[in-house]
Every structure is written in C-alpha cells, then in structure tokens.
C-alpha cells in the first residue's frame, strides 16, 4: 500500500468547485492516460477500492461563482493519494513517475497546478499487523478531514454521524476486497457495536453535501450533478473492557488501513479521507 503526499501551487488564481475531489480525480485520470491509457481505464472501471484521494487542503478565498471557491496564486496546497490494491504496483508507478521525473503540471478546468514536491510512504499488510502487536491498551482517534459519505447497506440513506458500526464495517468491506486471502477478517456489525465505543468531538462536527459525479439525463438532454451527504470532524473510538483481543486487534488493523483506503463511498473523488492516531489509554466500560 502506498500514500503519495503532494504539494501543489496554482500558476494563477482561479476557481474550483467546493467539492473539488471530483475534478482532481478526473485530472489525475487524464494525467495517467497520457502515457498509460490502459491503467487509467482500469482505475475508472475497477470494482475494487484501489485508489483514494483528498481534495486540495489549504487556504481558499470565497468565489463570486456559486458552488465554487478560489485557489490563490502563490499559495501551497496539500493533496494525498492512497493506493491500496497490492496488485496495483503498476498504478503506483504510473502515478508517481510523471510527478517525480517530469514534474508536470496538472490541468484543471480553469487553470493549472504546478507540482512542488512529492513524498511517498509504503506500508504492507504485515507492517500493519506488526504495529498492532505492539499495542497494549489502544484507542483510536480518527479525524475525518473530507466529507465522509457512508451509504446504509443498499439504500439511499447516508450516515450523518461517525457511528462505530458504520465506520468500521465500511473499512472492513474495503480491506477484505484487497488483502491477501489468509489475512481476511471475519468480523460482523455486532462485533463493532458490542465492543467499540465512539466519542465524537462536537465542536469539530460538520455536515456536508458534496458533488461526487455527473450523469447524462436522457429526458432533459443534459448532464446533471450527483450529490451525496456526509460529515467531517474528529471521533475517538475506545474498546470496552471485555473486548476480545482478536476483535480489538482486527479493529486496529482496519483503523490503520483507513488512511490508505478512505471511509465510505466516493473515496477516489475526495470523500472519506481520514488521519488516524492510535493512542494508549485505560479501558472504561
């Protein structure tokens, strides 16, 4: 698994959508498509959660254009890309090589972003397991830094709260799709509900409606946006005093994995990005 940390800066000030992850995702696919069309197509069509991205993180100004924000010339913005599928080393190579060697500019609709710096971080599934083994009395702090849209099963209902069952079951489904067969986790919703406790930080909690896609409306003969609802904020997850070690360790594996895969839907389009910290504490009922 890889995390790619980029800093970018616009050549001029210009507007981008408030939900900028969708436009960045499209720009990234075009970027890869220039030299590796098959890889770009594979990412777009893959049923696996192989790619996740944040939107741009930094200082913005209000835009006069509704639904947009303005990025500023001279400002530096941070952008993170996660690659989770172990079969997708080619994907990592095709993303990182142009950034590192060509230092190319990334073209958005209204302007271009110059690549200032690139850093990469690698972690294997075994590395995560080793980290978990070193934990004694762990708890998880999860910062949801981009709108997190967790669909309830196959319904149109979206979770609007960092509920422990919804969050960890979402990560579990992504993990089991890409991990080696021998490392699959056999957990269910009740395991998370019974042995995890969530404590959100109310002052950080926000709700959002984000653009995640556009589709062609055949009746109205034009494209229309698809919006999803989600939340951002910080939540602390601790374990009950009677939590079995196997469930505690499996939950920690998922927490570490979340930084690479994201939480919920539309993670390739900027949603569900998290920063995870595992801390040691005393268990409480």
Automatic annotation (TrEMBL):
InterPro entries: CRISPR-assoc_Cas6_C (IPR019267), CRISPR-assoc_prot_Cas6_N_sf (IPR045747)
Residues of the CRISPR-associated protein Cas6 C-terminal domain: 142-274
A UniProt-annotated Pfam family: CRISPR_Cas6
Signal peptide region: none
Protein name per its UniProtKB record: CRISPR-associated protein, Cas6 family
């Amino acid at each position: 698994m890889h995390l790619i940390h980029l800093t970018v800066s616009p050549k001029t000030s210009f507007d981008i959508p408030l939900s900028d992850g969708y436009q960045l995702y499209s720009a990234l696919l075009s970027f890869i498509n220039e030299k590796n069309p098959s890889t770009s197509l594979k990412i777009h069509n893959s049923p696996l959660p192989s790619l996740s991205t944040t939107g741009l993180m930094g200082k913005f100004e209000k835009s006069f254009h509704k639904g947009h924000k303005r990025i500023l010339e001279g400002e530096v913005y941070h952008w993170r890309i996660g690659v989770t599928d172990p079969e997708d080393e080619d994907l990592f190579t095709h993303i990182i090589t142009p950034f590192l060697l060509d230092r190319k500019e990334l073209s958005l609709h209204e302007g271009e972003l110059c690549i200032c710096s690139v850093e990469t971080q690698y972690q294997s599934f075994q590395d995560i397991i080793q980290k978990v083994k070193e934990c004694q009395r762990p708890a998880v702090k999860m910062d949801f830094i981009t709108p997190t849209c967790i669909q309830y099963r196959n319904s149109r209902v979206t979770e609007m709260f960092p509920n422990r069952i919804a969050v960890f079951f979402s990560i579990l489904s992504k993990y089991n799709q890409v991990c080696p067969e021998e490392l699959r986790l056999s957990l269910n919703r009740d395991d998370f509900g019974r042995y995890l406790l969530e404590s959100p930080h109310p002052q950080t909690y926000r709700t959002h409606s984000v653009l995640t896609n556009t589709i062609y409306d055949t009746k109205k003969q034009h494209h229309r946006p698809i919006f999803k609802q989600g939340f951002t904020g910080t939540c602390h997850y601790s374990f009950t005093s009677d939590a079995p070690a196997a469930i505690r360790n499996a939950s920690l594996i998922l927490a570490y994995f979340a930084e690479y895969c994201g939480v919920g839907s539309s993670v390739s389009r900027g949603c569900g990005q998290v920063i995870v910290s595992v801390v040691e504490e005393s268990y409480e009922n």
